[in-house]
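=== Structure Prediction Worksheet ===
Name of assembly: unnamed complex
Input type: mixed (protein and possibly other molecules)
Chain count: two
Listed entries:
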Amino acid sequence: MNSATLSENLNRFRSLLALGLMVIALSFLSEQFLTPENGFNILRQISVNLCLSIGMTLVIVSGGIDLSVGAILGLAGAVAAGLLKNGLVLPPLGVALVFTTTGAILAAVLVGGAAGWINGFVITRFRIPPFVATLGMLSIARGLTMLWTGGFPVTGLGESFGKLGTGAFIGVPMPVWIMLVLAGIFVVVTKKARFGRHLYAVGGNERAARLTGLRVNRIKVAVYTLAGALAGVAGLIVTSRLDSAQPNAGLGYELDSIAAVVIGGTSLSGGRGTVMGTVLGCLIIGVLNNGLFLLNVSPFWQQVIKGGVILLAVAIDKMNTKGEDE
Amino acid sequence: MSDVTPCLLEAEGIVKTFPGVKALSGAGLQVHAGRLVALLGENGAGKSTLMNVLSGVFPPDSGTIRVRGECVQFTDTREAQERGIGIVHQELNLIPYLSVAENVFLGREPRTWSGLVDFRRMEEETSQILKRVDLRVKPSELISDLRVGQQQLVEIAKALAADARVLILDEPTSSLSSHEVDALFAVVRELKAEGVGLVYITHKFEELAPICDEVVVMRDGERVGSGPLGEMSRERIVQLMAGRKSKELFQKTDTEVGKEVLRAEGISLPAHGVGRPFLVDKVSLSLKRGEVLGIFGLVGAGRTELLECLFGVHAGAASGEVFIDGERAFFRSPADAIEARLAFAPEDRKRDGLVLPMSVLENASLPTLEKSTRVGLVDTARESDFIRPYVDRFRVKTPSLRQAVVNLSGGNQQKVILAKWLATEPRILLLDEPTRGIDVNAKREIYSFIDELAKAGLGLVVVSSELPEVLALSDRVMVMCEGRKTAEFTRAEATPERVLHAALPDEANVLES
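=== Predicted Assembly ===
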């Protein structure tokens, strides 16, 4: 349906090929690699990054960038943990609200969405470049997290909240379910929904989109709000799995998520990219991390190798799309 | 072809294929010292592709290029530059916040002994070259402070500074005022006298006589005819371009004009920065159903900005009142204007009109997508069914609706934009330079579409810099100059002299009288 379908398919094929080769090589190199447990392990490990990266894909396709998702993840996790543990005391009103697990979950997603909405508002209303606006939000959200927690972890969040990160349904861990459902929803949203089409139009040519009557600002605000809410979901998974909200949770995650999006073939200049590609990007990073760990490669080398893979992926992508850029 | 002067550049049998499109299939031309070859052809005939091949932008699939008899293969523009081939693209490639001198010497800056840029030498040499192109600006001035015509001359200066022996000009006059065109032609004659060979791509026949020596006509990626200008009549050239006998350009039908559909009163748009205080200065106009209102003016007269104000683009900055069917309208964005069934086809199609990575269908359906949307999801079958009649109606030449719009020629891109807007069933259609950079045949098609749409009861506003176009199309002609409305004529009153006179600024009037 998209004119770039052919190159996208090629690109996805390349990513799949790379992923397949990695899996085959690792199955020979390590006995522990190709087991169901390890498979779920990898999926669980990438679930947080994928939640962030789906939002990041939307943002980057729209022609922007979001540096604040890691910090929003931390804030949302802390909010959920704090509300569960202490409730919300409002001295001026003389009330103390007690939160159920569901309430705390909703609150975390709302806080994430609100932070994202502010990103979108600032970017569209004051025409601040997304890079700068979300850099500001990164600092604000991290600071608020510290204020909210006093800089200490919030622990002991109860069994029902813990199920989100550690529970399983028909043998599949909950975080994996969450990730699959969200990925499914956003594949449809970007491929089939009108909102998705508008997203590609805004990223492909914002001026033309505006002159064609698209409410560009609304679309952008929606994109950043979604990215924030998805970061909230990621924050819930992290917090629930650890049974604790760390004030530093999510530090630097925005970079991992940009890496996954880029490896997945999404163009940083906007207008091109797919959620499916990002799923593959996350898988490639996840398998790589896991494989290197199983092979006892030093974590320091892991970072070096991951960086090399990012450069390689983008270099291959550029070589193949060179003709199209001109 | 006469061989009185040495052949500087020769291309034969050039073939170039892009994914899905054979852009060139055996194209060629010869450029002789001190002579100008005009390259003519419809849009999509492959003129620009051929020029890109000759200037090293991309290599040909096959064919030979000879520079002064020597076979060459360019892998990039720098190599072509070193062989003395310079090109000035239709879209200017200058860096706005660098000075004239810095642009002229970009990538080849002279250095001092310490390795830093030798600004004094750079500016001295630049002023020498600026004299050659008769451009009176300081080498230290910023490009962004120059007018388009001046920028064009800077581009030529840049090519000359790189010792260009062959200079390719791709539609250099498309955004110049007539004074600037005259200045450009004087420079072209000067260069010819110096022995530079020129290739000149154009759509305007009236530009041939003053400067041109030879004509090459291209069609469908091939050279279909060539010869000295004296042996090529206009009729013959048009015939070669079209591949069939050309008919009359355009015959307007008389339409019944209906009730007033659009009225604007005192539209003003303040200018930010240099020059006059208002881009659009208290302009009023009225448009009736079935009427074509032509707006003529030189580049910079504020015509585009006026259309943008009517379309809600400058909602925050503009002032004045707009009435649709006699009712006051407040457009806070283009989306509001579209809801009131206005449509606007902008001048710069690639920048403002199309989402280039998207397909013909996706572009054409963008404002009407909700018609094929159910519960938020686009039904692509409905979408194609809905859009196809409009794409067919405007005879868009495309292998399929899924074709990327970027691969279409300028004329077909314009038709996609018309199809897109007609699908919204507009009452008022604003067209800004609807035939800019479009070949004769597509132009004629666009003219007849405009005529048909007026007959169907739409109100149309057509902005154009081409006087014959405005006069042929319009029921009424409104003239703008420096942001103000300076005159309005009925079709009968509008003679070329009167209209042009009203479009010229006061100083120019003084100069010419």
